[in-house]
Write a structure and sequence with these properties.
Shape of chain B: elongated
Radius of gyration of chain B: 21 Å
CATH architecture of chain B: Orthogonal Bundle
Number of helices of chain B: 9
Number of strands of chain A: 10
Number of domains of chain B: 1
Order of helices and strands of chain B: HHHHHHHHH
Mean pLDDT of chain B: 92
Helix content of chain B: over 70%
Distance between the termini of chain A: 36 Å
Mean pLDDT of chain A: 93
Shape of chain A: globular
Number of helices of chain A: 9
Structural class of chain A: alpha/beta
Largest interface: A-B, 29 and 22 residues
Low-confidence stretches of chain A: none
Structural class of chain B: mainly alpha
Number of strands of chain B: 0
Oligomer: heterodimer
Largest sheet of chain A: 6 strands, mixed
Low-confidence stretches of chain B: none
Strand content of chain A: 25-35%
């Protein structure tokens, strides 16, 4: 069943076309990796999916419901789309638990006690129940990113977007974050991941999308893209990783 | 040495002018209090309006802030005190002084708050919006707590610098402390009242710096 459908998506900054006519369909439970050189439009595409960037043209549907154009309540829709950022973006003045529960209390209007239960549950899913009352500044990068994942999970989203979730981490901390994402996948979460972790992509992806110059150059199973690609641009890019 | 003591620390003179100085101190405290409250509130309010990014509104706010930061506060006081009555709005000296200094403080603090809001990492906005927080929740729960922390040191400086301008209010016939002291100094040909005023100013502004340090350390979280 289709969860996310993107058709004819265009976006330009000033005179530069960052996204040129993107079509993409993602099935429920799928794990889609977007790879490609920097500046290829991967992050912009991701940010258009929850409208942190406003697309210039095109339609995005979540479970068949259009979320682009003059949509009434984008904040309701954003609750269904979790997002995790490269630089974590935790709120430094709030504890891990408050980071996770802020939107529960403000947007879903849960009482503090109720929100805390859901928050602790989410922190437990990423293995950080014991850090609930720590401030982000006292956590390692890997822990911060897992809190950020919990913050998105607590809202019980239908779709999770990851924007280079491990790029800002020290190498020895990457594993913990990848494990947390793997567990989500095992639980059936639909995910779109922009990443340079090729090995992770190869193992975890149901579909790999290769972008270059604002276009989707190739898409297919990890085997199709990583081993049997016929596109010179894809082959060139992958060579730089080996 | 005796001459110095007699000129600046005469007990007789101090006792004579004590009631007057005390009344002056009270006027200064009142004015300073209301200027700080209204100036900072207005400044904060304007910086929040500016975050809405409405072009016309922002043009007006920037114009107001630039104007008020450039004009000498004394000029403003004179305008409110002498010119407003001519267009049918009579203002007492106190109100004129309060209004003038509040507006100047509002202008400076608006700029300080706004700079602080801008300096909060853009990722904080992204994170808040991505979880569906509205603009006002994003501002009040995420951005402002971080911005306030950044703005406290420069804000304290500005607040003290501008609020000390209460001393200018004697020019619009407000019996504030420094004006009273200068008058008393002339009457008595003795400088003791000036020292008394200095002590009074310390008594007002020293606690202000302490309060600011307290607030700053209370909202300091581990980074």
């Amino acid at each position: 069943m289709t969860l996310l459908q993107v058709s004819g998506l265009r976006k330009s900054f000033d005179e530069t076309d960052v996204l040129k006519n993107i079509d993409l369909t993602i099935e429920r439970g799928e794990c889609v990796f977007i790879i490609g050189p920097s500046g290829s439009g991967k992050s912009t595409l991701l940010r258009c999916l929850n409208r942190l960037e406003e697309p210039d043209e095109g339609i995005i549907r979540l479970s068949g419901v259009e979320i682009t154009g003059k949509v009434k309540d984008i904040n309701r829709i954003r609750q269904k789309i979790g997002m995790v950022f490269q630089s974590f973006n935790l709120y430094p003045h709030l504890t891990a638990l408050s980071n996770v529960t802020l939107a529960l209390r403000r947007v879903q209007k849960l009482h503090r006690a109720e929100a805390n239960i859901r928050g602790l549950e989410a922190l437990g899913e990423v293995g950080l129940s014991d850090k609930a009352h720590s401030y982000p500044g006292t956590l390692s990068g890997g822990q911060q990113q897992r809190v950020a994942i919990a913050r998105a999970l607590a809202l019980k989203p239908q779709l999770m977007l990851f924007d280079e979730p491990t790029s800002a981490l020290d190498p020895e901390l990457v594993g913990g974050v990848i494990d947390a994402i793997r567990e989500l996948q095992a639980a059936g979460m639909t995910m779109v991941i922009v990443s340079h972790e090729m090995r992770f992509a190869r193992e975890a992806a149901n579909m790999v999308v290769f972008m270059d110059g604002g276009e989707i150059v190739e898409r297919g199973s990890p085997t199709d893209v990583f081993e049997n690609t016929s596109h010179p641009r894809v082959a060139d890019f992958l060579k730089s990783f080996t | 040495m005796d001459a110095l003591l007699l000129q600046f620390f005469s007990l007789d003179v101090a006792i004579t002018y004590f009631p007057k100085m005390l009344r002056g101190l009270w006027v200064t405290i009142q004015l300073a209090f209301f200027i700080v409250i209204s100036g900072l509130s207005l400044g904060l309010g304007l910086s929040l309006l500016r975050a809405l990014k409405n072009r016309l509104l922002n043009f007006a706010i920037i114009f107001f802030a630039d104007l008020m930061r450039c004009l000498p506060p004394l000029t403003l006081m004179f305008i409110f005190f002498f010119a407003f009555p001519l267009i049918g709005i009579p203002l007492s000296g106190k109100v004129a002084a309060w209004l003038a200094l509040s507006l100047v403080l509002a202008a400076f603090s608006e700029e300080i708050f706004w700079t602080a809001i801008l300096s909060v990492d853009k990722g904080q906005w992204d994170a808040a919006r991505a979880t569906g927080l509205s603009f006002s929740y994003t501002i009040f729960d995420v951005i402002l707590p971080q911005a306030l922390r950044i703005s406290i040191p420069p804000l304290t400086n500005r607040t003290i610098a501008i609020t000390k301008g209460v001393a200018l209010a004697s020019a619009v016939a407000v019996p504030e402390m420094l004006g009273e002291a200068i008058a008393a100094t002339s009457y008595s040909s003795n400088s003791t009242p000036l020292i008394m005023a200095a002590v009074g100013y310390l008594a007002i502004f020293f606690p202000l710096t302490l309060i600011s340090q307290r607030i700053e350390s209370r909202i300091r979280w581990s980074l």
